[in-house]
Design goal:
InterPro entries: DHFR-like_dom_sf. By secondary structure, this protein is an alpha/beta fold. The protein contains four helices and twelve strands.
Length: 196
């Protein structure tokens, strides 16, 4: 089985968007370089960011997102982002009316069920969970193996938190990888497992 990774771009004070769901400059680093990150021609980063992000993206088989992210992106127009094979959406609501059930999207009601289904679909590839409430719930449930953050030098002061609304402490290991890009710092933290 592949690992489960919580991932997202984040302000230095821990936010993934403001209160209106606007990520502001959090994704500017994805379009400010000269090295293509994908075939779209839109995403261009500096070489250090490319060398960190591209191999990670290539190992992702499934992304888990909450219904809020799904709705904000209009379901990525039915195509999973960045060449990912499947998206599992955590939602208590059914798919949107008229949604094509043959698209590589599945809707489940609980985070635990989403991770289990995503692992089945991903096989030995990585399962990525978006930052925010769904990612925070997965971390709190002991379902996350690694936390990856693209820290952008901006302070929001308020907004949507990277870890959602966690109500307890969760220890991460020291970062096992730190990559300085331009206007972004890429961090990778293994999640500390409690031993009995």
């Amino acid at each position: 089985m592949g690992k489960v990774v919580m991932y997202g771009s984040v302000s230095v004070d821990g936010f993934i968007a403001d209160d209106s769901d606007d990520p502001g400059p959090l994704f500017d680093w994805l379009t400010s370089g000269d090295v293509a990150l994908d075939d779209s021609g839109v995403l261009k980063v500096k070489q250090a960011s490319h060398d960190y992000i591209r191999p990670y993206w290539d190992e992702i088989g499934v992304t888990i997102a909450g219904r809020h992210v799904f709705d904000l992106t209009d379901g990525w127009d039915g195509t999973p982002p960045s060449g990912i094979d499947h998206v599992v959406v955590v939602s208590h609501r059914p798919p949107p009316e008229g949604w094509n059930p043959d698209l590589p999207f599945q809707f489940v009601e609980r985070v635990e069920a989403a991770v289990a289904r995503a692992k089945e679909l991903a096989g030995d590839r990585t399962v990525e969970i978006t930052a925010g409430d769904v990612g925070g719930q997965a971390l709190a449930g002991g379902l996350v193996d690694e936390v990856r953050m693209d820290v952008v030098p901006v302070v929001f002061g308020a907004g949507k938190r990277f870890f959602g609304t966690l109500d307890a402490h969760h220890l991460l290991e020291d970062p096992d990888l730190v990559v300085q890009g331009e206007r972004v710092l890429h961090l990778r933290y293994p999640v500390r497992r409690e031993t009995n």
